[in-house]
Design goal:
This is DNA repair protein XRCC2 isoform X2. The chain is of the alpha/beta class and about 290 residues long. The chain contains ten helices and nine strands. The chain has one domain: 3-Layer(aba) Sandwich (Rossmann fold).
Amino acid sequence: MDFQVRAESGKQLLARLSTRPSLKGLDERLLGVDGPLPHDVIEITGDVSVGKSVLALQWVTRAILSPPRGGLGVEVLLIDADHHQSLFTLVQLLQARMKAFTAQTSGLRLTSSLVETSIKDALKRLTIINVYDSTNLYTAILALDKMLLSKPQISMVVVDSLTAFYWSDRLAGGLQHMDSYLRRLLSALQKSTKEHKVMVVFTRPSYFQSAARSRFKMKEDNGESTRLVSLNRLEKDISGGSSKDGDNQSATNKDMIENIFSATIRSAYGQKILKYHITKEGMQWL
């Protein structure tokens, strides 16, 4: 009879036995009623200006807001490599989430002072690490293990974008193949987080090969994602429309039509496709 002995440190034992705050209900439309799961690795992909960073920030917003304001009250760690979204954008999304939640909750009234207090309270649950080159990014990823151990309330790690420095690394003589580059970074990211039962979210451009390949696994599997959210701009034929309402109305309709996108969500549970458009209040589902 073969016996296997697995040694673990006190740190690993503590991480394995500890329970982090749940992210259940983070986004029922995209991730399901019971999702996301601990150890989920969610890959958001798409071309420029389709909402990759916006979707990631909306999840951050929902997580860090307190439950009385429409959130989960969970801490989030964001590694920002693209610097596409400002703090102003995050504040706008926080305000939009509170406004929508208030509209659905009878007897709840938002005042300017309450909004300000709620935003300050939410931002206390967000840790942002700004990185400006691949060395910064890799160092931040390697530091996640110790950081997560010291912050047991963090349940989500977001990297926007995991492939931000590919071209500069390629010019410097680094890895040439996109799929190898992505898998190396994702593997390091998973190794730094696998003991801590956190959800990992990362964004990448659509021209990078998916880390999910053609299969999904709902257990830790270094170098592969468990859910893929693919965002795309819908191509619409807007020619031949009536111009009787004038040029201004036609231009408005054209903008509305061109601002329609689709999100394809793939996982071990299946696939679904949703439509959305992007406003200053974030992604609005149709």
